[in-house]
Design goal:
- The structure holds 2 protein chains of 2 kinds.
- Chain A contains 10 helices and 10 strands.
- Chain A has an 8-stranded mixed β-sheet with strand order 5-4-6-7-1-8-10-9, with helices on both faces. A two-stranded antiparallel sheet of chain A has the order 2-3.
- Chain B has 12 helices and 15 strands.
- In chain B, helix 2 packs parallel to helix 6 and helix 7 packs across helix 12.
- Chain B starts with 8 loop residues before the first strand and ends with a strand.
- The chains are: A alpha+beta, B alpha/beta.
- The interface between A and B is large, with 101 and 104 residues.
Chain lengths: 310, 404
């Protein structure tokens, strides 16, 4: 089912200004470059977000990408002017996966034995007490709900298709009558150290990127852009099979997907579907439809259908 | 509210637990009042804030144990369901799971790769880029992605519909069942394999929870007991097969809510828990239940707040309900906990018994509901409620009902 988009915000490797980002995509620009953040890695051409998140009291619990996620959630929500009761507003988040937060852990692992003997006394007792909270997959979900007072329902969805899952789940909850509005937020970075090592070993041909995006969705609003999302997986270790991709494209009645967005911005993991939705919406002419498809490991595929009414 | 919508039924269940490799094997020991909580032997837990867990014996060759647990439980649930193979696009997988973690030796190897010298505490990216390459297979997305298990199950069972991974801490498994039910209700799919898996008995998670002060220093899980002092980590997988085809047990109601209160502490008024329970009851068209499978973590805060919320939600029908918690016997499966709760509710309806809260001896006066202490209580159960509440204030509740 499609639902209406009434608010949006993003942080991308091309910046946060919608017109500027879309102009660069249309011009065929590429965000990938040899960044100091990837120096020393086999996978050295990357597409990072250039800016840093604003200072926040939630820096105790969130690292860089989580702070971007919280920022775009608040921006999109503020721009949506919803009149729904807080108990009827849901929150759906997409995240790529947990990160190690090495800065917190190195001290605790310094004197460890490989067999874990006496691991507590050897340093785990010195790991930062907030390590677990920074490690919590739903920490942005929880903090966004707190800061915005959202008391409806929702969840956090994990993996490379997390953003598409979050859009699809929000649409289901709207369709089932459980909520009247939904805030969807997705963020991911493929520039984490372990990810760069993994991608380098696989000799991937794409550019790892990072992004955060948020959408505010309602069942219907005259004249508003509309979006539907679908996802799937087939258990492949790397990219999904063509059959899996075809099935997910059929689920959103997709014809030919737009690939210019990920070519321009890099692979954005769990944030991809939300970023595609915002970009495609800005590029669509009235009474037209566009599709974005993304794939990721292990065997995952996601698709969005974006419609601009006449 | 009465709505003309597709109904959802439970066709199969499966579990892989510290008390058994199947749900029947597990549940017979649960009914007898056994506990799977033991001193940790899989690694040296000396000095940790808690030294006990409900653990499954480990195969040291496994880098990530989630998939083995979930596959075993899924195989059992799918065999029990005995459904015809659905068309791929009408069959979805919805799993509560967190990211995988490599073995401690892998984490340590990565940390050593990141250090410029043996005493450095800053991350040396250039060195890591060189030295960590040998670990690439062990940190591959197919091993550690939160989606790795759901994607593998989709491949195993030729499920070509949605493949979704809900990473919602302690409510993940329940929230995944909600998502599966909704996908069936809205006509997106006909059949869902759903549930949750937790595999958190490892040094890092024991340290992480320990540092937060939420584990039992005594190593005892005793939900609702006056002496409760924290939870015990457990692990395992619980899976269900859902379909629109009628069966003896209906997943009649689903409800979720957000506390919007605090990152770790539940709303002291229990309002979010209350709203999730009442949403699920309203969704099912019920005002009371015969059994509540409580979240019941054995932490001082959660249990008293949850009982207050149960009392408020059930009101005049409170006396009809017995309350118990899986965590007394099997510990807290975190991402798998909510799905395990659904199996307790399923057992109550199909077997006419309420499984006990292991460890409960002396109920806290603030938790004064109808407890089941010792061994299982024989009791016809028509309607059961299963609660799951997460760090971060996300709540998810399920109402299962006899369809006989």
């Amino acid at each position: 089912m499609t639902v209406a988009i009434v608010g949006q915000a993003w942080r991308t490797p091309f910046g946060r200004d919608l017109a500027e980002v879309v102009a660069k995509i249309r011009a065929g620009d590429r965000a990938g470059h040899a960044s100091p953040r990837a120096a020393g890695y086999a996978c050295s051409i990357v597409a990072p977000i250039a800016e840093e998140p604003a200072k926040s009291r939630q820096s105790r619990f969130l690292r860089r990408m989580g702070l971007f996620g919280l920022e775009v959630a608040k921006e999109a929500f503020a721009g949506a002017s919803l009149d729904a009761h807080p108990d009827r507003i849901g929150l759906f988040a997409g995240v790529g996966g947990l990160r190690a937060h090495w800065d917190d852990m190195l001290k605790g692992l310094e004197h460890q034995s490989p067999d874990g003997e006496n691991a507590w006394e050897r340093g785990l007792r010195d790991v930062h007490p907030y390590w677990m909270l920074r490690h919590l997959s739903n920490n942005v979900h929880a903090l966004a709900a707190m800061e915005l007072g959202l008391r409806g329902e929702g969840a956090t969805y994990g993996g490379a298709t997390g953003g598409a899952q979050a859009i699809a789940a929000a649409a289901r909850a709207l369709g089932d009558g459980a909520i009247d509005a939904a805030l969807v937020v997705a963020y991911d970075s493929l520039l984490e150290p372990e990810t760069l090592v993994e991608l380098g070993a696989k000799q991937v041909t794409f550019v790892p990127g990072e992004a955060a995006g948020a959408l505010v969705l309602v069942r219907d609003r005259p004249g508003a852009l509309r979006v539907a999302a679908a996802d799937g997986g087939d258990g492949e270790r790397g990219e999904p099979s063509q059959a899996a991709i075809d099935r997910v494209m059929r689920a959103v009645n997709a014809t030919s997907p737009d690939t210019s967005i990920t070519n321009a911005l890099g692979q954005l993991g769990a944030a991809t579907s939300v970023v595609q939705t915002i970009a495609l919406g800005a590029m669509l002419s009235p009474d037209s439809v566009a599709f974005g498809v993304s794939t990721g490991a292990p065997g995952l595929v996601a698709a969005v259908r974006v419609e601009r009414p006449g | 509210m009465t709505r003309d919508r597709r109904r959802v039924f439970v066709h199969g269940v499966g579990a892989y637990s510290p008390l058994g490799t199947t749900w029947p094997a597990t549940v017979e020991r649960l009914a007898a009042g056994e506990s799977g909580i033991r001193p940790i032997t899989a690694f040296d837990a000396t000095g940790f804030p808690c030294t006990h867990a409900a653990a499954i014996p480990r195969d040291t060759a496994d880098e990530d144990r989630r998939l083995g647990f979930a596959r075993q439980a899924a195989r059992e649930a799918w065999a029990m369901a005995a459904l015809a193979q659905p068309a791929p696009e009408r069959f979805g997988v919805f799993l509560g799971a967190e990211s995988g973690r490599g073995q401690f030796s892998t984490v340590l190897g990565l940390a050593n790769a990141a250090r410029g010298d043996s005493t450095a505490r800053t991350f040396d990216h250039a060195r890591f880029g060189r030295e960590a390459r040998g670990f690439a297979d062990r940190i591959d997305a197919s091993v550690i992605s939160p989606s790795a298990v759901a994607s593998s199950l989709a491949g195993d069972y030729r499920a070509g519909g949605p493949v979704e991974t809900i990473s919602l801490a302690c409510a993940s498994g329940s929230a995944a069942i909600v998502e599966a039910a909704r996908a069936i209700r809205t006509g997106e799919i006909e059949v869902a394999l759903c549930g949750g898996v937790g595999s958190d008995v490892d040094p890092l998670m024991l340290a992480g929870f320990g540092l937060l002060g939420v584990l039992s220093p005594r190593g005892v899980s005793c939900p609702f007991d006056a002496q409760r002092d924290g939870f015990i980590i457990g692990e395992g997988a619980a899976m269900l097969v859902l379909s629109t085809e009628p069966s003896p047990v209906e997943l009649a109601g689903i409800g979720r809510s957000l506390d919007a209160h605090h990152l770790t502490a539940p709303d002291p008024e229990g309002d979010g828990a209350y709203r999730a329970m009442t949403a699920a009851l309203r969704d099912a068209g019920e005002t009371g239940v015969d059994y509540v499978q409580a979240h019941g973590t054995s932490t001082p805060l959660n249990d008293a707040i949850e009982v207050a919320a149960i009392k408020r939600a059930l009101g005049a029908q409170l006396d009809r309900a017995h309350v118990s918690s899986s965590k007394g016997a099997l510990g807290h499966w975190v991402a798998g906990a909510g799905a395990l709760g659904a199996l307790y509710a399923y057992d109550a309806i199909t077997q006419g018994r309420v499984l006990p809260t292991a460890g409960l001896r002396d109920p806290d006066p603030r938790c004064n509901v109808n407890h089941v202490i010792g061994t299982a209580l024989a009791k016809p159960v028509r309607v059961a409620l299963a609660n799951a509440f997460a760090f971060g204030g996300a709540n998810s509740c399920l109402v299962l009902r006899s369809a006989r």
